[in-house]
Amino acid sequence: AQSVTQPDIHITVSEGASLELRCNYSYGATPYLFWYVQSPGQGLQLLLKYFSGDTLVQGIKGFEAEFKRSQSSFNLRKPSVHWSDAAEYFCAVAGGGADGLTFGKGTHLIIQP
Amino acid sequence: DTGVSQDPRHKITKRGQNVTFRCDPISEHNRLYWYRQTLGQGPEFLTYFQNEAQLEKSRLLSDRFSAERPKGSFSTLEIQRTEQGDSAMYLCASSHPSGRRNEQYFGPGTRLTVT
To answer: Beta strands B5-7 and B19-24: pairing type?
Structure first.
């Protein structure tokens, strides 16, 4: 069965600093990988996705993520965070035959002024 | 494109009552998904429709839960004899048939509180 681990429950970053959120997945074949962001009381917004090809993918709001097969990782990065980036971030994985996404438990991002 | 909509946004009910939630997917999206999210956790997959056919159900979907999509457009999720453990955010998502099937777009969710 596929699974996702987000090792950091909370991360605090100063505004303007760089950000990296970690995601490790378990899946037997080439996965489909996603990052979603959730603001309080809201649904999930798709930030970016990886299906195949270039392992560095660009998303919305200045985010990018890098797929590293050897490390089973799909870490999310942003060079300079803004106060509006404070939210919950979820990594998710799907296989080719599985239509439901498997999510990690999320990382709560706090932005310090 | 108005996005995925869900109704109601909030529902408070007493234990033992039945509740029904509605999801309207993005137009022309033939795939529709239901997830449940409890506090401090990521969403958990419940069930999936392609058009009107329910193709996959998680073991999380107990006999008290039923989902329908009768005309392949909107979907309903009913919980019978609610329990306090059913308190959660219920999320709906949809995806386009020509896109990668796993690229899902989520609605704002329905927050259920069972007292």
So the answer is: antiparallel
Q: What is the pLDDT of residues A22-74, one digit of tens each?
A: 999 998 777 899 999 999 878 899 999 998 888 999 999 999 999 999 999 99
Three-state SS sequence of B77-96: EEECCCCHHHCEEEEEEEEC
Non-local (6+) Cβ contacts of A11 within 8 A are A19, A21, A107, A108, A109, A110
**Residue of B38, B40, B44 lying closest to B86 (CA atoms):** B38
Determine contact: A92 vs chain B, CB below 8 A.
yes
Q: Do A100 and B58 touch (CB under 8 A)?
A: yes
DSSP-assigned states of every residue in A53-101: S-SEEE-GGG-EEEEEGGGTEEEEEESS--GGG-EEEEEEEE-SS--S-
